[in-house]
Design a protein that fits this description.
The structure holds two protein chains of two kinds. By secondary structure, chain A is of the alpha/beta class. Helices cover 58% and strands 11% of the residues of chain A. In chain A, strands 3-2-4-1-5-6-7-8 form an eight-stranded mixed β-sheet, with helices on both faces. Classes of the chains: A alpha/beta, B alpha/beta. Chain B: It is found in: Cytoplasm.
Chain lengths: 378, 480
């Protein structure tokens, strides 16, 4: 449990056994830089501003959590728990309180995450069918393109299915992705029945031994009953043709979405048994606190994260690294007041950050070229 | 709905206030907390909420509670007024250039709905103003974004200018504008690629387009479901481009749309349009006042208050109170009362206007038979004058006759008489200021609280009136 160890270390002041940052971690680190600034830094500022713990403090804390889009219920849950905890442990000083807060956050995240399968499911044999659902404009098509690219490079036989027959240009968008990543796309003319497209694709996948079938569906708002029924039908068609399918129903969620994300997840789950969440656009200023809320309320694991616009910017969701990334500012910030050994770590990190800041103008022109090529918006 | 509306929150918090004629600071603090949380639930940015609460608090402390409003309603009214103030009072029209073409530029994050909105807007201008708009496809990044605009353009029969994905957006806009001039198009709508407001390269590109095109209108397109980050997005785009207006999309979902308030309050820029559906015609002019109610989740409480004040005949109501006090409430009075309620409109509509009731799933499948009241009236009409004035004489024989006369089963007659008697009892208690047993009468939860609030108000009023009357009587007697 890397993450919890890190937290523990931050408080106990134990010397970290090794300080190896994997590439994966760095990516999260970079992608979540903005998110972290929003969250960890805010919490730190909060601690710095309050000498004593009173009602105002908790009000501020609630606000801070809510501002991270953690969700109202979760924020209340946390602050209620903390009120209790602070009373019980008689924590008055800033250090004590922040310790209690971190403990509690970790506890909540850990408790809610038990018995959840965070990995993508694959079929035991035959094609694995993944159905992508979500509201309009969250990035379903883009995610499928990225995922197809990933499986393609892994040497799998991938098929993409353009079942968004509604939105103008959606089929072309997927066909374009197909050209870019060199993956065949099953498509029918616009406005045809999406379930029939899916049926054809599943037949094709079975006959031609495809490994992975990625089904793109039209964006739909969760309160549109007819469209949700259509989704149910698509799901039913898949199950009829491949009894244990769809193996994954992935709900794409925009990380900038507020509390409505919870309602979205709830409604989509009712219709299609969502097995996982793809959190897209996490490279913006979105705080990603919604992950806590989703965990807490719905017990749907986040399986994939969109951390940028490049083709390989879709990553498996690693909760420990994500939470660590989110709370890093908090943990290290705490450490500087808490333990001497951590101070070393902080001072090591500080120059690294300024370095990257200096490099920005150079790398940006390079990046701009890459993004111009790979820019994938939707 | 997953979340309680502001009004319900307020009602829970307001219990303590109901006996007070004036709101004190301590009372207000508790209520402000509820407002704060309700706004946060609706995804209004927390800094915006803070400012907002400050204003409302200042106005609420010491505010004289109007005779006709309970403290809860009073605060809701203040909140609503302040909200409308922030949101703007009236719909803001599109900026227009004195010389054609009027240039409109769409900007925003990925997936906000720029392309769809651009086409909807073109369609709106075309059908409503007989305009001849042209669309410029400036999104060269997202695969098939140009195709999307072309298809939409075909659907609404509006020309789309595109140069493929190999030409820079600035160049596309330049040539597009030249062509628009040639064709004498009166509107040019530029669709741009979605981008993060922190992506400097792409933001500079927008800046370049702006410098070149000198648009009359830069519309920031924002997904109504956006959470707390709406403020950063709005500040980012506004800071760089000085947008002139906002389009709120996907409002046909069930989001509260607190982002609208956040954006409006940090940029001060008007929200001009809202996307309300997937059809090409689903773009409407934005009405700030309606959005205020939506954010609050209030239902149409203010209309209800107005309606009650307008339709409920003051004089008759007073006479009724008199009767109640004398305990001479009879079937004639019951009839009058029923007619007054009926005058306010169909029961469903009235109930829907009660906050918390409009979206109440329990009520969704409940049908109010408008004939129910008619049937009760029929029963009363079948009574003799004597029976109506003196309900106590209704023996089984009379009841049988009434049932036959009104064409209703005897059980229904019995039930109606029983209910009438209960009501009479209750009124007697209320006019004596005794509230015991009232709780069950109105069921539990929201309805109960609402009813109790209005009831206690009524009692207070009654007592006042009684006092006045007694004073008058005393004076009269004194003179005699």
């Amino acid at each position: 449990m890397g993450f919890f160890d890190k937290i523990k270390r931050a408080f106990t002041g134990e010397e970290p056994k090794e300080q190896v940052q994997t590439q994966e971690e760095e990516r999260y680190d970079k992608g979540l830089e903005k998110s972290r600034e929003g969250f960890g830094a805010k919490l730190n500022a909060l601690f710095a501003n309050f000498r004593s713990v009173d009602e105002d403090f908790f009000e501020e804390l609630e606000e801070t959590l809510i501002e991270a889009d953690v969700g109202f219920d979760v924020a209340m849950k946390i602050s209620e728990a903390l009120r209790e905890e602070v009373k019980l442990q008689n924590a008055k000083k800033q250090d004590d309180v922040s310790k209690v807060i971190v403990q509690k956050l970790v506890e909540i995240y850990e408790a809610e995450g038990q018995d959840e399968n965070n990995a993508l499911n694959y079929a035991a044999e035959g094609p694995t069918v993944m159905l992508f659902v979500g509201v309009n404009g969250v990035g379903k098509t883009t995610t499928i393109g990225k995922l197809a690219h990933r499986y393609q490079t892994e040497g799998k036989k991938v098929l993409m299915v353009a079942a968004d027959t509604f939105r103008a240009g959606a089929i072309q968008q997927l066909v374009e992705w197909g050209k870019r990543v060199d993956v065949p796309v099953v498509a029918k003319p616009e406005k045809s029945d999406p379930a029939s497209v899916v049926f054809d694709a599943v037949q094709k996948a079975k006959q031609e031994d495809y490994d992975i079938v990625l089904v793109d569906t039209a964006g739909r708002l969760q309160n549109k009953v007819n469209l949700m029924k259509e989704l149910e039908k698509i799901s039913r068609v898949i199950t009829r043709e491949i009894p244990d399918g769809p193996h994954e129903v992935l709900l794409a969620l925009d990380a900038t979405t507020g509390q409505n994300a919870l309602i979205q997840a709830k409604q989509f789950q009712e219709v299609t048994q969502v097995t996982g969440i793809v959190l897209t656009k996490l490279d913006g200023t979105a705080r990603g606190g919604i992950v806590l809320a989703i965990r807490n309320d719905l017990h749907i694991p986040v399986k994939l994260v969109g951390l940028g616009e490049k083709m390989d910017d879709l990553r498996d969701f690693n909760p420990e690294e994500f939470v660590y990334g989110l709370f890093k500012g908090l943990v290290t910030g705490e450490a500087s007041t808490d333990a001497d050994s951590e101070e070393v770590e902080v001072s090591q990190e500080a120059p690294v950050e300024t370095d990257t800041a200096d490099e920005v103008p150079e790398t940006e022109t390079e990046e701009a070229e890459v993004t111009a090529e790979n820019k994938t918006a939707e | 709905m997953a979340f309680e509306g502001l009004t319900e929150r307020l009602q829970n918090a307001i219990g303590k206030l109901r006996k007070k004629g004036k709101l004190t600071e301590a009372d207000v603090k508790e209520v402000m907390r509820e407002i704060r949380l309700a706004l946060l639930e609706a995804d209004v940015n927390f800094k915006v909420v803070k400012e907002f609460i400050k204003t409302v608090r200042e106005r609420s402390i010491g505010a004289e509670v109007l005779e006709s409003l309970t403290p809860a309603q009073q605060i809701v009214k203040i909140v609503d007024e302040e909200l409308t103030k922030v949101m703007g009072e009236e719909a803001t029209p599109l900026n227009k250039s004195p010389k054609i073409p009027t240039i409109i530029m769409m900007v925003g994050l990925q997936g906000a709905g720029k392309t769809t909105t651009a086409a909807k807007l073109a369609n709106k201008l075309k059908t409503e103003e007989n305009a001849r708009p042209m669309l410029i496809a400036g999104d060269i990044y997202r695969p098939a974004a140009i195709d999307q605009l072309k298809i939409l353009g075909q659907e609404i029969d509006v020309p789309v200018f595109a140069l493929g994905t190999d030409v820079s957006p600035v160049e596309i806009v330049k040539q597009g504008l030249a062509q628009a001039k040639e064709n004498h198009n009166d509107y040019v709508i530029i669709d741009t690629a979605g981008r993060l407001q922190i992506d400097e390269t792409l933001m500079n590109e927008l800046s370049d387009i702006k410098d070149l095109a000198q648009p009359n209108e830069i519309l920031l397109t924002v997904d109504a479901m956006t959470g707390q980050s709406a403020v950063e997005v709005a500040e980012g785009f506004n800071g760089k481009l000085d947008v002139t207006g906002v389009v709120l999309t996907k409002l046909d979902g069930d989001t509260r749309g607190g982002a609208a308030l956040s954006i409006r309050s940090v940029t001060g820029k008007p929200i001009k349009f809202m996307g309300q559906g997937e059809k090409i015609t689903d773009l409407d002019v934005f009405h700030p006042d309606r959005m205020a109610s939506r954010i609050l989740g209030m239902g149409d409480m203010l209309s209800l208050i107005e309606k009650a004040q307008r339709d409920y005949d003051e004089e008759q109501a007073l006479a009724m109170q008199e009767k109640m006090r004398e305990n001479s409430f009879d079937f004639n009075d019951f009839l009058v009362q029923m007619e007054q309620v009926q005058n306010m409109g169909p029961m469903e509509d009235i109930i829907k206007m009660i906050p918390g009731m409009a979206n109440n799933p329990a009520l969704k499948n409940m049908n109010f038979d408008p004939k129910d009241l008619e049937r009760v009236k029929a029963i009363i009409f079948s009574m003799t004058r004597q029976e109506r004035e003196n309900p106590d004489i209704l023996n089984p024989s009379r009841r049988r006759r009434i049932a036959a006369g009104s064409g209703r089963p005897i059980q229904e007659v019995n039930r109606m008489i029983k209910q009438f008697n209960q009501m009479k009892d209750m009124m007697k208690k209320v006019s004596n200021g005794n509230f015991d047993g009232m709780d069950q009468m109105f069921g539990s939860g929201m309805t109960g609280k609402m009813a109790k609030m209005s009831m206690s108000r009524m009692v207070r009023k009654n007592k006042k009136i009684k006092q006045k009357r007694l004073n008058k009587l005393r004076k009269k007697r004194g003179r005699k």
